[in-house]
Amino acid sequence: MGKADFLSPKAIANRIKSKGLQKLRWYCQMCQKQCRDENGFKCHCMSESHQRQLLLASEDPNKFMDHFSDEFKSEFLELLRRRFGTKRVHNNIVYNEYISFREHVHMNSTQWETLTDFTKWLGREGLCKVDETPKGWYVQYIDRDPETIRRQEEQARKKKQELDDEEKTARFIEEQVRRGRDGKEIDETPVFTELKRESEEEKVAFNLGASSSVAGPSKSSASLGPSALKAAASSSSSSSTKRKDTSSDTRGEKKKKSALEEIMEMEEKKKQSVRTDHWLQPNIVVKVVTKRLGERYHKKKAVIMEVRDKYGAVVKMIDSGDKLKLDQNHLETVIPAPGKQVMILNGPYRDTKALLEGIDEKNFSATLTLDSGQQKGKRVNVAYEDFSKLA
């Protein structure tokens, strides 16, 4: 029987049927051929080309399965990255869009039996964030492009620098306001000096200034001789200069003391504002926050064995005993229960051991009692990121 004409109803019906997706059980992945019914699939399985492909696959079946699995994984992740980005989406929605492509790799030819197994595998390998809900499994793509990571780190660094600049500006304004208030207080407060005489016979004289000179000589001054007037003038001038000297000395001492106190306060503030951008210390407990190492190490605790170049550390995992070399950006501090011993890692009390007394969740800080150093027994408030549990 000859082939149906191109515009005949049968030929049109065959083209419509072959256009859409067909049943998965009638698809041959080795030959990449889709059959429309059971009879067509049976005829294909008996064909010589199919038998030849089976002989090739029987020589190394794992090679073909790994090839199909890698292809399925790469195409699935590429669709997830391009279509949804880093959004959280249901795995079935992504899979439905993936299988809408006619030439896609079928899952029955891969190492995963179900979509759930494939989703769990993505989470274990650290390729995606996966979580199970009553509605099913959700996936979120993790963008590991070096350019994207560099851009994110640059944005975080810029944001931190802006916050530091704002803090410096606010601190400078507060310092200026404080200096202005201190200066006003010094100028406005009157200085009272004690009136002292060197001898009991010395007379107290008051210099009336220009008014006395304008008024002219009085009768008493005319009756006294010129020598008596000179002696009185010299004694009054000497007593007034002495009073001026004593008052100026006391004012100078007061100003000197206030300046010294101001310098001491500024030095104390400088000590408190001294912070470094590296905080790693040996023999402290930290938590791994990077997801590049997979779910096996994510959010797991470790002990720092060695610090390298201030910003890197060799850590030993507590649960598995594995040793890893990580950057400080991939680690975070661990806050123990109250009463445990901690190490202060940054700020004026750096490298000081302390006891954790309490936690202030509102201000993201904790109250510590210093356990070593000159200020042993002193209570201080330290931010979460500036201390960690001792191993």
Question: What is the compact description of this entry?
Answer:
The protein is built from 10 helices and 15 strands. The chain has helices spanning 9-19, 38-45, 48-59, 61-84, 91-99, 115-124, 146-188, 210-215, 219-223, 226-273; strands spanning 27-28, 33-34, 88-90, 128-133, 136-141, 285-288, 301-308, 312-317, 323-327, 331-333, 341-344, 352-360, 365-370, 379-383, 387-389.
Structure description:
A 5-stranded antiparallel beta sheet has the order 9-8-7-6-10, with no helix packed on it. It has helices at 9-19, 38-45, 48-59, 61-84, 91-99, 115-124, 146-188, 210-215, 219-223, 226-273, and strands at 27-28, 33-34, 88-90, 128-133, 136-141, 285-288, 301-308, 312-317, 323-327, 331-333, 341-344, 352-360, 365-370, 379-383, 387-389. The two termini are 85 Å apart. The chain is elongated and about 150 Å long. It is built from 10 helices and 15 strands. By secondary structure, the chain is α+β, with helices and mostly antiparallel strands.
What Rg do the Cα atoms give?
A: 44 Å
Taken in chain order, the helices and strands follow as HEEHHHEHHEEHHHHEEEEEEEEEE
Number of strands: 15
Quaternary organisation of the protein chains: single chain
Cα-to-Cα separation, first versus last residue: 85 Å
| Biggest sheet: strand arrangement | 9-8-7-6-10
Tell me, briefly, the overall form.
Answer: elongated
Main β-sheet description: 5 strands, antiparallel
